[in-house]
């Protein structure tokens, strides 16, 4: 293997892990909802698939349009994370409140879409730079799936220690991560 390919591979691995960290944070919060292991597996696979589809679309569009759209997707993703986190905190105090987005059915699609929006904007820039598409997609999908599973398993463990307060912690994580994306 050439030295250039190895450097590109290392950079893409670090990028894939960084992109998967938002899936990890979200999954940590979702894991506190005492999800069954089958649901954990499905959520991880769904988020992984979206981390393949979104950068693929971004790479395709990146070859056609400019990279200015990337800023808007980051803002949209961060505002959604803030809203979901705030709603989780609110519902922890108001037991009558229904959860805004559940990781079931269409809610799972919304969660996976939201957490993979940043990979779309990265895909745009990678499309402009001519990165190896297949390698990017495999790394992004695998890292987000694995980090998602780790987050949900850790969330299940933390929930046992914190009980009802784990939802406040999970909502705070999402809220803080959304603010970090928005202002960081």
From TrEMBL:
UniProt KW Nucleotide-binding keyword: no
Membrane topology label: Multi-pass membrane protein
GO CC entries: plasma membrane
Subcellular location: Cell membrane
Keyword tags: Cell membrane, Ion transport, Manganese, Membrane, Transmembrane, Transmembrane helix, Transport
One GO MF term: manganese ion transmembrane transporter activity
Transmembrane segments: 6-28, 40-61, 73-93, 105-128, 134-154, 166-183
Family: Belongs to the MntP (TC 9.B.29) family.
General function of this protein: Probably functions as a manganese efflux pump.
Protein's recorded name: Putative manganese efflux pump MntP
């Amino acid at each position: 293997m050439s030295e250039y390919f190895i450097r590109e591979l290392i950079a893409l691995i670090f990028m894939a892990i960084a992109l998967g960290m938002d899936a990890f944070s979200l999954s940590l919060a979702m894991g506190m909802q005492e999800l069954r292991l089958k649901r954990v597996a499905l959520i991880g696979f769904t988020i992984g698939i979206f981390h393949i589809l979104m950068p693929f679309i971004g790479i395709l569009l990146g070859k056609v349009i400019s990279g200015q759209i990337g800023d808007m997707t980051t803002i949209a993703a961060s505002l959604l994370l803030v809203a979901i986190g705030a709603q989780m905190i609110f519902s922890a105090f108001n037991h009558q409140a229904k959860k805004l987005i559940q990781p079931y059915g269409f809610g799972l699609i919304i969660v996976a879409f939201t957490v993979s929006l940043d990979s779309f904007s990265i895909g745009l820039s990678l499309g402009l730079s001519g990165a190896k598409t297949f390698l990017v997609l495999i790394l992004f999908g695998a890292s987000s799936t694995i980090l998602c599973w780790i987050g949900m398993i850790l969330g299940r463990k933390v929930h046992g220690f914190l009980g009802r307060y784990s939802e406040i912690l999970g909502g705070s994580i999402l809220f803080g991560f959304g603010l970090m994306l928005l202002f960081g």
